[in-house]
Amino acid sequence: MTAVRGWCPSAWRPMAAGDGLLLRVRPPLARLTRAHALLVAELATRFGNGAIDLTRRGALQLRGFEPAGWRAAVERLVSAGLVDLDAAVEAVALTVAPDWHEGDDTHRIARALAARRGELPELPAKFGIAVDAGAHASLGDTPADLRVERGADGGLILRADGRESGMRLIRDEAVDAVIALARWFVTSGGGAAGRMRRHAAALPDWAMGEVPPREGVPAYEQVAPRYGRLTGAELAALSDGAEALRVTPWRSLLKETAGMIRPSDGRVSRTPARPGQEAERPSPADLPAAAIDACVGAPACPQASVTTRALADRLAAARVAGPIHVSGCAKGCARSAPAALTIVGRDGRFDLIRDGRVDSPPTIRGLTAAALLARLGAD
Ligand code: SF4
Fold first, then answer.
1. Exposed site from 53, 133, 237, 368, fewest CB < 10 Å?
2. DSSP state of 220
């Protein structure tokens, strides 16, 4: 099997990481039924090393597979309808705002688009489509290249990533417009740029629009495991008493019972439930840790030259003001939004960026972990 690096893995094209193959599962409509959750939990434990990462595109990444175990797991996932038999269809990164209700715009358009994925052209590996058509658009920080969103005027819009505004959509023509804009991206040379926001070509006249998204923050009861990491046993426990779990691109899960997900004041549970326990609600003192994003880092990721989560834990324990993003390399998998402190591993040392992203100019380069902690008052 060929190791595929530098782009996102899929179920059919697993990435070789430091702890074995990664198997990515993107649940249809961001929804794992309880039976699906138990299956994923079982496969992660039986064939992988038990670790599951929630990703910023609303997928689950199961870690630590050998090739034979990966194949056995994929066969089970195909049988359960969690992975498409067609690798090209499975590769289309479709991210769905998880707070949909049966029959609403997000649900209807995401279902229609999923059914027509085969009409999309061959797209770059990281190209993604977000369906974000609830009362507000909430996936602005989620990586995607084409966005179906709730517009500021209350209607539906299609927005090319990187543009401030989008074109108005006629409800029943939304999927046609998405497919047409994806085809334009390819025929206008977008493949060389790889992503819509880097594609300099002017949009076709029909895709120009002046309606910005109506942005909003989701307010549902979420369980957000630390750094988006949970075990198979924890996933199984979380599904207890739920009809389904919605997988969010905020690296959290929403519980669905009786077809409903519960609204909240926006606070989230930080700790996944252990078997036999309810997920814990955080005390206010826990909240600063939630403002830290850290990718898996070394040694599990072969592109990292530094460990990340131990450093993030030290910063959390010292209550360094966030948001903080600790990234094992300049790819920045854990966060695309700016952070007060962004710490990027490079050649075994760390670059420090203030009020920026991984690709912003560093304030200081080449710090050792000890020097970095001392400079941030966390030594
Ligand atoms: S950002 Fe982290 S997880 Fe992503 S490739 Fe770099 S080291 Fe690996």
1. 368
2. B
- Rounded Cα–Cα distance for residues 220 and 233 (Å): 24
Longest dimension (CA), the chain: 58
Closest C-alpha to ligand 1, atom 4:
333
304 Cβ inside 6 Å of ligand 1 = yes
> Rounded to 5 degrees, what are φ and ψ at 184?
-60, -40
Give the range among 26-30, 176-180, 193-197, 264-268 with minimum mean pLDDT.
Answer: 264-268
Q: Is the CB–ligand 1 distance for residue 333 below 6 Å?
A: yes
Contacts of 223 (CB under 8 A, 6+ apart): 238, 252, 253, 254, 255, 268, 269, 272, 273, 279
- CA–CA dist 334, 251 (Å, integer): 9
Answer yes or no: pTM beyond 0.70: yes
Condensed to tens digits (0 to 9), the pLDDT of residues 312-352 reads: 999 988 989 889 999 999 999 999 889 999 999 999 999 99
Does ligand 1 have an atom closer than 6 angstroms to the CB of 301? Answer: yes
Report the candidate in 293, 305, 323, 291 with the shortest Cα–Cα distance to residue 369.
Answer: 305
Name the pLDDT band for 6 (thresholds 50, 70, 90). very low
If you take atom 2 of ligand 1, which residue's CA is the nearest one? Answer: 328
Ligand 1: does its nearest atom lie under 6 Å from the Cβ of 329?
Answer: yes
Task: Look at the block and give the residue holding tokens 């609600």.
Answer: 281
Phi, psi of 237 (to 5 degrees): -65, -40
Which backbone phi and psi does 208 adopt, to 5 degrees?
-80, 145
Q: How far is the CA of 22 from the centre of ligand 1 (A)?
A: 13
Atom of ligand 1 nearest to the CA of 296: 3
| Residue to mutate (ligand 1; options 296, 344, 359; most atoms within 8 A of CB) | 296
Mean pLDDT of the chain: 90
In this prediction, residues 19-36 reach a mean pLDDT of 96
Distance 327 CA to ligand 1 centre (A): 6
Position 9 pLDDT exceeds 80: no
Cα 320 to chain centroid, rounded = 25
Question: What CA–CA distances, in Å, run from 271 to 49, 268, 274, 290, 311?
Answer: 20, 9, 9, 11, 19
Contacts of 75 (CB under 8 A, 6+ apart): none
